[in-house]
Amino acid sequence: MGYINRQAIIAQLKKDLIGKDSYRGVTLTYSWLANQFGHFSLGFIPTIIIYSFLKSKPGIQHPELWAAFGVWSAWILFETYNFLGPLLLKVPTKRTALNKGNYTFSPAWMNVAFDTLTDLIYFGMGAFAASLVCHYHPGMLAALLILLLLVAYPAYYWYTTKMYVQNAEYPFQLRLSQWNQQIDDKNKAAIQEFLDNKEQGKHMLIFGSRGSGKTTLSIGIATEASIKNNCCSYVTAVKLLSLFFEKTANPRHLDKLWYWRNCNLLVIDDINPGQPVKGDIITTRLFYDLLNNVDCGPDNIRHIRDKNIIWVMGTDDPTSLLEQKWETLLQQIGVQKSNIVTVNLD
């Protein structure tokens, strides 16, 4: 199973820190590093400015301390309001927001809180570092060292989490709480159960017509799994059909930490377009024939059967029996019926 280890983190850091982003794509890890440098700077620069103003005022002792703690306190107040405002203020409270449908799936508030605390540590580091530049104070040095120790785990967690998300190769970024389409309680509960599941071999078939939000929903679910540090992969059905003919040790995959065969969760998108397009473009017969090819058939079937997969389907037209056909296919390759769940967004 692919995973992120120390060597992988060091290799990613080299890619992010060495070279110019003008001739390469900006990764999520690079963006996170730049974001934290911005938070550090937003603590550092105001502290320098305020210290320059305070040191000329008679009667103010240790202006470097007042400036640093003043700036950090201001950012703490701002981030507290930014985080708790929507939860505590009357318009909107968290309950009202949920009742009004602003959140179909509730945000991972603990994850958001941890992100907020991480930002505050970087604000404080910037402010305390600026204070030391302005005037050395042993207490401030101790405070900065404490923050450096405190930020070690959050930095490791967030950087590796960004690696989990970017190596999934999603076509866009979306948290599940950002998905705000209509869905009934039964399907919502099925999605939450699928996301909370710790076992492998679970299959979710998401049906929907064009514009129903089936692709965004699948990416939102998978993104939450990535943030929980699961190895996830996104692939379109047409691309996967060609990958069925590549053996596990294919050298084209050596630059990836994992790929579709050894991930925890696989999203197979665009199996069929759905309404207004009628008919099956990728039929179960075609899918199985390519899946069970001479070179890699048994290996393909094992990996499809034994991993968690989100199947993004077309419209579940009763006349085409699409749901029944794909459930039959999955059972044909050994998936238990109890491990198959269907979500219909139409």
From TrEMBL:
Transmembrane intervals: 37-54, 66-89, 109-133, 140-159
Name of protein: ATP-binding protein
Keyword hit for Isomerase: no
Gene3D superfamilies linked: P-loop containing nucleotide triphosphate hydrolases
Organism: Pedobacter psychroterrae
The entry's keywords: ATP-binding, Membrane, Nucleotide-binding, Transmembrane, Transmembrane helix
Domain of life: Bacteria
GO molecular function, one term: ATP binding
